Amino acid sequence: MTFRPQHEIHRRRLSRNLGVGLTLAAFVVLVFALTVVKVKRGDPMKGYDYIVDPALMPQEKTE
Amino acid sequence: MSDIGAYQGVTETPHEPGFGDYVQLLKPRVMSLVVFTALVGLLVAPVGLHPVEAFAAILFIALGAGASGSLNMWWDADIDALMKRTAGRPVPSGRVQGGEALAVGLALSGISIVMLWLATNLAAAGLLAFTIFFYAVVYSMWLKRSTPQNIVIGGAAGAFPPMIGWVAATGSVSVEAVLMFALIFMWTPPHFWALALFMKEDYHRAGVPMLTVTHGRRATRVHILVYTLLLVPVALGAALTSIGGPLTLAVAVVLNAWFVVGAVRILRRDEATAEADGYRVEKAFFRFSLLYLFLHFAAFLAEAALKSAGIGGW
Lengths: 63, 314
Fold this sequence. Notes:
By secondary structure, chain A is mainly alpha-helical.
């Protein structure tokens, strides 16, 4: 099997493709870092699953 | 399997845009000012953010500003092509198509607003959305071509970043944030009118109703002084709030005295004198206006650093 020579359009668009690729990779890293920071700090995150969350229940009156 | 066959007929495109051309759509020089003022607004706030959140906030505020710049370039391509200062921009020079600038602007607007919301809070994201709308629609589409007060009102768009930085950290607007906004808002007219005095042919050719075109150059010189005088109490007032201190007040006094002197010198000149020396005083005033704003915000930052060391602030 032989590789076909690279098409001219790939060379021409190299900077654009590289720039978009690196930007997307940096975006993924940033979202991951933000997620880690927020989860570690325990920001309010309440998923509505089938388990009763005591924090969401109305407070009982105490005498 | 390759999709390259679809491009077999494409041999040479005269204006193949590179990544840098798309970056130019975001007006990187304006973005640098946005980054700096938003960073100051965020760092001088009484509530701290985690460094990752702070980085994300500044990045998405800057990206939002860039998005509005791209929308502006899409809308203003016709007049940009007529002005020497802007003719080399990606759209008027033909390197990027207008539709692409619109797409980049809309996409980045959405991404920056949503991401700022997720990284910080809804109030900051709402302010960013309003800023983009204000710059792209209120300023670019409406005011710029219809009134000589275009940059007075449109200056608000450039004044929001420190307020957004502050709100990103605190979640609400306060007098300090309003005064940082007012500082840039009041600074914008003298800054741009000084530019319009020595770039007169550009605006005239493009038919943009700058004050120099509609009311004449004498009136512009008067307006520069009036707005400079109105700027003084705002700058001194900001130095007297919780983000100020003795250092900030001293810097504000010196800078404003210098700025007023510059505005008075501009007022005293007539066109013949200005033409004769190549608008030396007007150009010096314009350059100093950049330094003026930078040093004011640098002083806020320095004051915050001194305060954390226990020696700054009131």
